[in-house]
């Protein structure tokens, strides 16, 4: 399959009538899949009403079919067609954070969406992305768009069109290049079907922001207990992993350096994932800084690009620093823990 690339300037006055947007929207109407930018990461979109289109998403990603997809909309009028019994809490969250990096799990109206898109569940995960290109594409298609991240399943999520092209060229109909994304980590997923909202996946909207808006927020036990099965789309399997094994270290830079020295003495090529503040401290074969520790938003923004950068090296092992689990740091550590797949090393000197 030939993958078409469309470059779109997000500052165009009327993106809905932009020729590239119209052409990409026609692909979606024809039940093809198209990658597009959101404010979090690039999504891989298809007609959420059509089984065939949704099957193409799973096939392109190599994603297990029991993993539900997030449905993307461009206006609230679309929501009433496939969601019911929307709570007052959910409505407040929509008014406060949409368009933006927040996904809400709601009760599903039966018989509208592809059962493949919702993995046969009685609920549906929905968000309205805060990116002008995404909103224009969805609006031009006239469809609810099912869209996970536009990468091969298990790899770091894409924050540029080049990342998407690297993973999915020849496997999808097209890629809309709207420039690099901003937030860098996926949307926060909140279940609004119970007595009070529950965070199923930390992301671009922080726990603190949610609690300021609606009060008490619960948490999916799977976020802290690996024996539990996560309920959120995109959290059921290992994700975000670089090619080389990644070990997170809860300890000082000196403690991490000791681990580096031990592995290098054993003949291994060792990489360190650090921050701008600490990168001058380490002596390793590869050192890559991932934003600034003093501003964790920069770490989130560059996280996936950093993880992909290690794939361009021949490192045998990667040691990574850990971050405070507060604000967007909660989402950063959630993704790093998934990327590692190994127990965090606690090491003090």
TrEMBL record:
Annotated positions binding L-threonine: 40, 72, 127, 147, 187
Catalytic EC class: transferase
Subcellular location: Cytoplasm
Domain YrdC-like: 18-205
InterPro entries tied to this protein: DHBP_synth_RibB-like_a/b_dom (IPR017945), Sua5-like_dom (IPR006070), Sua5/YwlC_C (IPR038385), Sua5_C (IPR005145), T(6)A37_SUA5 (IPR010923), TC-AMP_synthase_SUA5 (IPR050156)
Record-linked Pfam families: Sua5_C, Sua5_yciO_yrdC
Family of this protein: Belongs to the SUA5 family.
Function: Required for the formation of a threonylcarbamoyl group on adenosine at position 37 (t(6)A37) in tRNAs that read codons beginning with adenine.
Name listed for the protein in its UniProt record: Threonylcarbamoyl-AMP synthase
Protein source organism: Mesobacillus zeae
């Amino acid at each position: 399959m030939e993958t078409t690339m469309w470059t779109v300037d997000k500052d165009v006055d009327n993106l809905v009538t932009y020729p590239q947007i119209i052409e990409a929207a026609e692909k979606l109407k024809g039940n093809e899949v198209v990658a597009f930018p959101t404010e979090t990461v690039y999504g891989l979109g298809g007609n959420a009403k059509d089984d065939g289109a949704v099957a193409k998403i799973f096939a392109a990603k190599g994603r297990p079919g029991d993993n539900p997809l997030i449905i993307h909309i461009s206006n609230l009028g679309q929501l009433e067609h496939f969601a019911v019994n929307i709570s007052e809490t959910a409505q407040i969250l929509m008014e406060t954070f949409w368009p933006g990096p927040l996904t809400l799990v709601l009760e599903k109206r039966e018989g509208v969406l592809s059962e493949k898109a919702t993995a046969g569940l009685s609920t549906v995960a929905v968000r309205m992305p805060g990116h002008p290109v995404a909103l224009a594409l969805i609006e031009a298609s006239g469809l609810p768009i099912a869209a996970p991240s536009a990468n091969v399943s298990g790899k770091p999520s894409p924050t540029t069109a080049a990342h998407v092209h690297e993973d999915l060229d020849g496997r999808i109909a097209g890629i809309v290049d709207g420039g690099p994304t901003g937030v860098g980590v996926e949307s926060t997923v909140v279940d609004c079907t119970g007595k009070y909202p529950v965070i199923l996946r930390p992301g671009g909207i922080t726990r603190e922001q949610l609690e300021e808006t609606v009060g008490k927020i619960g948490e999916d036990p799977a976020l802290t207990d690996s024996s539990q099965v996560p309920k959120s789309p995109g959290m059921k399997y290992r994700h975000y992993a670089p090619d080389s094994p990644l070990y997170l270290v809860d300890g000082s830079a000196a403690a991490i350096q000791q681990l580096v020295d031990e592995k290098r003495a054993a003949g291994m090529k060792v990489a360190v994932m650090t921050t701008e503040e600490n990168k001058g401290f380490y002596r390793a074969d590869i050192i890559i800084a991932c934003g600034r520790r003093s501003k964790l938003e920069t770490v989130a923004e560059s996280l996936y690009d950093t993880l992909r950068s290690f794939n361009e090296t021949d490192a045998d092992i990667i040691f990574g620093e850990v971050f405070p689990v507060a604000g967007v740091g909660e989402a950063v550590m959630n993704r790093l823990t998934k990327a590692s797949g190994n127990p965090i090393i606690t090491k003090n000197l």
